[in-house]
Specification:
2 domains; hydrolase (chains A, B); TIM Barrel; EC 3.5.4.28 (chains A, B); about 25% strand; disordered N terminus; 5-methylthioadenosine/S-adenosylhomocysteine deaminase (chains A, B); alpha/beta; 5'-methylthioadenosine deaminase activity (chains A, B); about 450 residues; 9-stranded mixed β-sheet; 17 helices; homodimer
Chain lengths: ~450, ~450
């Protein structure tokens, strides 16, 4: 085709690193329809062109090409809130309320088992699952963030890695002072240093971090121009605590402390009143909706349609695998489309395209990555996936967007590209040694099982 | 092993048709724990033994054996409410309210496209998806039930096939008289004639079938001792119609007409008051919960925990692929576990095992198949599946039931057996020619697309 275009007197074909074809290209650029028989061109990790197959073939020669028959090319998904290493606690305890789950199980388990090695293995397991499922960016909040960042560096994903600080003892720390000092140090060391890793502060929640400590976080985040990621307005118990102690809502509490002036990624955002929603919209705070986790912990249903109407940037998250119990963002997309229809009684609420927007373009903005990813257009970093659409259980196909939301599973993702680099080809993850990972997970989970059995025997 | 047991003077090993092993066996018999390293023995289509691998190997010699490493053996899932052939409408229209969806799209589409050939192809596509996903029994309600029954006969699944009758024109019929006469004829011809197929009456809903016609249904169902399957108490619009016309609730309306004295399978059961729930429990009516469909159509949240507390037999259904948009019962299991936690604010509501019970033992009772399937124990028909548990995204494994509910997807099902016959082995469906099916679906959906495009052009 390049030769033909030369013969026709057109400009000579330009070189590219990678051309990804698709029977369908869903750019997620506002108001752009699904492009049939198209391609995305990548050079130096960035998207340099999106267009019809014919135009692209005339203008570019890719060093590598990925065929697109029966596939849609679209932006990779953005998981706006997770605790990756908790994959090692997947399914250990279920069907408990948030405070029992946190105080009786999660915090004690973390105190007992979470080490740098645990975090390396658990994070790698999470990254494997995310690459396989088409998630290309995630916002993490977990202990030993340097170890998380090194796994992210190796496996090729993009992440906001938030270093947790909390007023109570946590893995590696005795309380606030040392956990906050470590977070400041982490942010300073990683800020601006890695093309795919953005460090962040992670004050755990308004009910576990004092107002003074939240003010200190604001001060340092402003000084370092750093992202802040935190749990906010998750459950009724949090609202009750904040009302009793500060006579306000969780949102207005942290807003009053200055957090809404920072680049805040607020996870959950369930317990909101109209004032909270208006403040969130006005501030540009990213709100991450975690439907599975909120349902499983009985936290409530986030007022997502009201937030969207008010102009809040709403993203989607899986939360950790201990409360989900997987990192499959397609389930969150589907639930975002379903849950608010039944909550409002309006089946036109959160239509399929809007749900998908929350996992891509708008989710990227909410995760403070909107300048880099979430849309397929020239200038954006090349974070994209191919999803297969012709499996027998997907037939027939009338509407690509409908299928992506209501029919697609993580197993339908066939290609994952981040920053122009292939992380998965034809379902094979290229950057993680699956056999070695499985062996590590087996060893670590055997340790956990043995320790739990010993505790059970002793009690 | 058989030789050893003979040497030890034990009884000689008995012959069996099939032995299905599992690292885990989940019988779903009340209060039976997960059996590790076990097996299920099948002869003449029935389960004749369930026990430890060692005991089974000593006592039985199977003509065929299926290995169970990293697999759980459990009862096949029961889909208590679906319209199988609507797979051919999968994803055609979404994000509309029930009455618009029904009256503007579904009914006209059905009038235009639904023929015996459409039903044969759509039903086969549905059966393929159900076999692949581990559903072994289903309750169908769709046009041309003889064609449905013939597909079920060939593909090996078990089904209650309900013949629809409605006061309005429907595919093949001008209204009530002929559709009801055809249903009576269908039930007479199939009742007691096939080991896996049970015919049933299907008066569409209380808002589409008059009281006189519901009374006539009751009379014929009583005379023929036949199952009745219908939509009941689905959406607020139905409740409003029944209140306006009959000054009662949908449940008390049909109860007053005698339907609650029949073997009724009532689909949806969303709009219920405490009286309705008490009547349903007392009557033994099976209530089929369709969470995805109810959410997608904004119908409301069924009071499942209250029904379970009252003793109602609650099963799960996918509804048709036009309102789901697939027939994946694992998603319904997961949603049944999640939705009622957030609805009640109680994260201990509908724990994982209870959700799984609704898809197996209790679902079988609700679908009027509880004497045949839903549990793995001697005397039951051999409807069982193997689910793989060691894929990397499922690791680690602490609790089999938790993983089945919160992590398993339909793609994790590896073996499907119905009535002792293997319908899928190692993910390969053995009773349906996938290539031929795909060709038929392509042809039929092309026809639908062309007709729709012609309509669009003309309008």
């Amino acid at each position: 085709m390049a030769v033909l275009s030369l013969c026709a007197g057109a400009a000579p074909a330009q070189s590219a690193d990678l051309v990804v074809y698709g029977d369908y290209v869903l750019t997620m650029v506002p108001d752009e329809p699904v492009l049939e028989n198209g391609a995305v061109v990548v050079r130096d990790g960035a998207i340099i062109a999106v267009g019809s197959r014919q135009t692209i073939d005339e203008q570019y020669i890719g060093a590598e090409a990925i065929a697109g028959t029966h596939r849609v090319v679209m932006p990779g998904l953005v998981n706006g809130h997770t605790h990756t290493a908790m994959t090692l606690f997947r399914g250990m305890v279920d069907d408990l309320d948030l405070m029992t789950w946190l105080n009786k199980y999660v915090f004690p388990m973390e105190g007992r088992f979470v080490t740098p090695e645990f975090v390396r293995i658990g994070t790698e397991l999470a990254c494997w699952e995310m690459i396989r499922g088409g998630t290309t960016s995630f916002v993490d909040m977990y202990f030993y963030p340097d170890d998380i960042a090194r796994v992210v560096d190796r496996c090729g994903l993009r992440a906001v890695v938030a270093s947790p600080h909390i007023d109570y003892p946590s893995p590696g720390f005795s309380g606030w002072d040392d956990s906050f000092a470590a977070a400041v140090d982490f942010v300073k060391r990683w800020q601006g240093k890695h093309p795919r890793i953005t460090p962040a502060f992670a004050p755990h929640a308004p009910y576990t971090v004092s107002p003074d400590h939240l003010r200190a976080t604001v001060e340092k985040a402003a000084e370092l121009d750093a992202i802040v990621s935190m749990h906010l307005a998750e459950a009724p118990s949090e609202s009750a605590y904040i009302a009793e102690n500060f006579a306000t809502t969780p949102v207005r509490h942290v807003q009053g402390l200055g957090l809404y002036n920072q680049r805040l990624i607020a996870a959950h955002m369930v317990q909101l009143d109209p004032n909270d929603i208006a403040l969130t919209a006005a501030s540009g705070v990213g709100a991450i909706h975690n439907p599975t986790s909120n349902m499983k912990l009985g936290a409530g249903i986030s007022p997502v349609p009201a937030m969207l109407n008010a102009g809040v940037n709403v993203g989607l998250g899986t939360d950790g695998a201990a409360s989900n119990n997987d990192l499959d963002l397609w389930e969150e997309v589907r639930l975002a489309a379903l849950l608010h229809k039944v909550q409002t009684g309006d089946p036109t609420a959160v239509p399929a395209l809007q749900a998908l927007t929350m996992a891509t373009r708008m989710g990227a903005v909410a995760a403070r990555l909107g300048d880099k990813v979430g849309q397929l257009k020239p200038g954006m970093r090349a974070d994209l996936i191919q999803v297969q659409l012709n499996k027998t259980r997907q037939l027939p196909l009338y509407d690509v967007v409908s299928h992506l939301v209501y029919v697609t599973d993580s197993s339908d993702v066939v290609t994952t590209v981040v920053d122009g680099k292939l992380l998965m080809r034809d379902r094979e993850v290229l950057t993680i040694d699956e056999a070695a990972l499985r062996a590590s997970v087996a060893r670590k989970s055997d340790e956990i099982r043995s320790a739990l059995a010993a505790t059970d025997d002793a009690s």
